[in-house]
């Protein structure tokens, strides 16, 4: 049962819209163009590219949209019990001061926004998930960050592992996603990218394609 054929990895991807100080978010452009880019390039064997959604750069006010989006990953799969395979949520966010890509190992249960989000929310030292207790609580990805970074470094990308996804919307979304992943038996990963001024669009598109390839190779 479900053993026929190679195992499949389904990767769903999110990016973010613009926000305070970043009028053009590279992750919105990457995510909107990813399906077309991967079609031309050819999908790695064993990869299913699922939904590609762009999220509001907002915390609490955008939670219904976030939960609805996360739910998409498991909704379709429940009807396909024969070969469910591995499901991964890949979240892309921009770090406007960065000079390289960063694969985030963890998220912290703390929302301390340096500026209001796109819905005007500016929490300070508030838990992302109240039922998870302390703002010091950490959730880690179950994916091998060091292995992923090593593989992408070998391909020539300027990339680093990171234990600090900030305390803004990126960390907020990642924390919710890691909790959702744990509850639903799937995996979640957050990757920070620089602005296109720092690393151009074509290189970033190629980077995400390479990242997808690496994620498939792990399974």
TrEMBL record:
Gene Ontology molecular function: any one: pyroglutamyl-peptidase activity
Keywords: Cytoplasm, Hydrolase, Protease, Thiol protease
Signal peptide (from-to): none
Species in which this protein is naturally found: Musa balbisiana (Banana)
Entry-linked PANTHER family: PROTEASE FAMILY C15 PYROGLUTAMYL-PEPTIDASE I-RELATED, PYROGLUTAMYL-PEPTIDASE I
InterPro entries (UniProt xref): Peptidase_C15, Peptidase_C15-like, Peptidase_C15-like_sf
Gene Ontology biological-process annotations: proteolysis
Coiled-coil intervals, chain numbering: none
A GO cellular component entry from the record: cytosol
Any one Pfam family match given in the protein's UniProt record, by short name: Peptidase_C15
CDD domains (UniProt xref): Peptidase_C15 (cd00501)
Family of this protein: Belongs to the peptidase C15 family.
Protein's name in the database: Pyrrolidone-carboxylate peptidase
